[in-house]
## 1
Amino acid sequence: MAEWSAMIRRKGDRIGFVPTMGALHQGHLELVSQAMEECGKVVCSIFVNPLQFNDLKDLERYPRQLEKDRELLAGIGCHALFIPKDSQLFLGLVPREHNMGGLELLWEGASRPGHFQGVVNVVERLFHYVRPDRAYFGEKDRQQLSVIRHVAREERWPEMIVPCRTRRAPDGLALSSRNSLLSVEQRKQATVLHRALRAAASVAFAHSLKATSEVALMILGTEPGIRLDHFGIVDPVSLKPLESWEGTDRAVALIAAYAGEIRLIDNLTLDR
Ligand code: AMP
């Protein structure tokens, strides 16, 4: 992979990179398409990163569909697909603790200890092989995006981190590889995440922060099949919970919840 990247760079092409865990859907493909618009050559990687799973069952049941993924990427003209083996990616890797400015302790980090260190160690390794100019990450995983931006800035990574908007199903559910694990019933129930976020957006800034949270939680409560892990209205940069709307024009509402054993996350920007 590193040799391929070096050859592309010698030709003067910019390399775009979309790291994924596979089981690709339209959300992933939009990242690839955006990268293709901005870069001469685009690499997508598929690696189900064991370091970022703190639940072994979640890792085992994570959907895998390599052949279909290859076809989807070929179908949109992605230039290269990188599928490293664990042994290759972890060769000589001693995972280290990155400074994440405390971002790793909030929300997803509180529920999944070690998750973000696992993500960043592998992203850094993937960057080492691919040597991209630009790397594309979805806002769907808002905290992951914030953590990667923070580390990239802190450690002076040369790669430009490019955020991409969340792609949704027509009923609002954020596309996710894990959605394929939902039963028909759970799939319907899962739309409550987006409905709760939209409800929060519709009253945000006009009503108090507390009332805005209550509206979202009330909507979530209408779906007993969905078990809330966390909901928060946060500062878009620090991801710390807001105390009030004062001095703020923009906030983010974050949700994580379970449908049965399947963990779902989503978020929405709230604008004044
Ligand atoms: P994953 O395969 O879940 O690790 O995701 C790979 C990349 O795709 C990450 O940067 C995600 O944030 C992004 N992504 C996943 N789902 C979506 C979506 N529905 N819309 C936009 N980006 C997404």
## 2
Amino acid sequence: MDTETIRKKIQEVKYPGFSRDILSFGLVKEVSFENDQVFVTVEITTRDSAIPEQIAKSIKEKVGSIEGVNEVKVKMEITEPNPNTNTTQANQPASIEAMQKVQFVIAVASGKGGVGKSTITVNLACALQKALKKRSQSTKIGIMDCDIYGPSIPLMLGAMGQPQVQNNLIEPIKNFDISTISMGFLVDDDTPVVWRGPMIMKTIKQFAENVNWGALDILIVDLPPGTGDAQLSLTQTIPLNGAVIVTTPQKAASEVARRGARMFEKVSVDLLGVVENMSYLMDSDGTKQTLFGEGGGASTAKALKTPLLGKIPLDTDIRKGCDAGIPIVVNKEDSQATKEFLKIADSILDQLFKETL
Ligand code: ADP
């Protein structure tokens, strides 16, 4: 017997609900053996006691099947996220030096693409800035665009240029006083998507560790759409204080959104709420057309026991703002969409600052 054989067996133990193994998630702290006894120590932050139980059972089964092993002792070092606060430090991601002066990190996620996640991210960034200003607080906002397949944040925010590197740190590009880093700055449109896939974790790690974020009040992480392993590892790499789920009113979309949200549950990141996008179209005579059905946001929020933060209408000015690189929250302050974004921002701030207010 040797530890390499044992580690190989542990690699067969998947994190419950995911196809990735616990070793590659960095949860295995120690592996040793003495005669026919194996000792495994696992470190995990979760509220769900079923997860460590299942992992321990699976380790015992797998490692116990190695010839010569008589007993497997699994030590679970479980850290409970603080139950009194909505500002959970996620599943023990390393405290990243470049992000140390960032007060809050929130993720914007969706179960699938095309629901307007990036649109919500840029407008929310501008709305948070305004809401912080109204509270006479510092208004430094950043966006980390992790959607490496379709990085649209730079265009939507009118942020252009080539990021400079100083003292081994990448300088984010600023527009509307929002510091942004995106794969869109680093690759051209012709870079094949197949090349980007394997780069996802590497890129995100670099976005977290090698960007000169400096002092920020809130950093918004625009996650790639979906609920797969890349998203899960990302939520474990970056210390998240909360997550916002974007969905549309359709039933199908909201079911996918719920699956996405459960990923945050698994890694003990609290949900800040649900934003329903493309909720309705306001006719010129003032009637609301519900093109994509109704109730998806509310039912998603209810199922996830989190607030419905707001409903963003379908509005050509939102799309035009994205195309022109001037978000509607900046461009059309009196629009219904802007008012809704400001309401959403206020609710998020209330939750984040709940400890200090
Ligand atoms: P995702 O990030 O989920 O893939 P995007 O934010 O890129 O989606 O949005 C896709 C397209 O839909 C963009 O062209 C955007 O301008 C448009 N869009 C998103 N939300 C709205 C809305 N509420 N009203 C009008 N257009 C919208």
